[in-house]
Amino acid sequence: MQNHFELFHLPQRFHVDPAALEKAYHEVQNQAHPDKFTQASGAEQRVAMQWATRANEAYNVLKNPFRRAAYLCELHGVDLQTESNTSMPRDFLMQQMEWREELDDAKAAKSPDALESLQRTVRTARQSEIAGTGDLLDAGDYATAALNVRKLMFLEKFNAEIGDAFALIEA
Fold first, then answer.
1. Which pLDDT band, with edges at 50, 70 and 90, does 47 fall under?
2. Which is the most buried residue in 88, 107, 136, 163, by most CB within 10 A?
3. Is residue 137 a contact partner of residue 72, using CB atoms and an 8 Å limit?
């Protein structure tokens, strides 16, 4: 079975041209779109639907930097150990604790400005982590990249918590 990159005829690397991904996705979708198979047999319609679903899934993985990084690690046999390996560098753990305190303070003060500031900080850290992870992946250092993917998981989850805090303040 083809991997997501092969499905779209893209190089198997982190740094993907977004325009090329978009174009390849639409080409696959056009070929497998269920509307083209309205007169086909039931079996052909199911196959077309499976291809369209697979293209959607592949596109959603490849367009998201975090998901693309995790996928590349997995493709290269690196287990992210998301459930069993929670070890992180000390400086990253300290940063997490500081951010958690900032989040708690912002929620207690019901301060959208403090939440926005924290969200900008986390987004900047996320962008930096994505860039470093991408460089590691494209250099073939999947084991080191796996640690960064686990860091990205925290950043994604924490950013969602900030979004939840906005919702609580605005309610």
1. confident
2. 136
3. yes
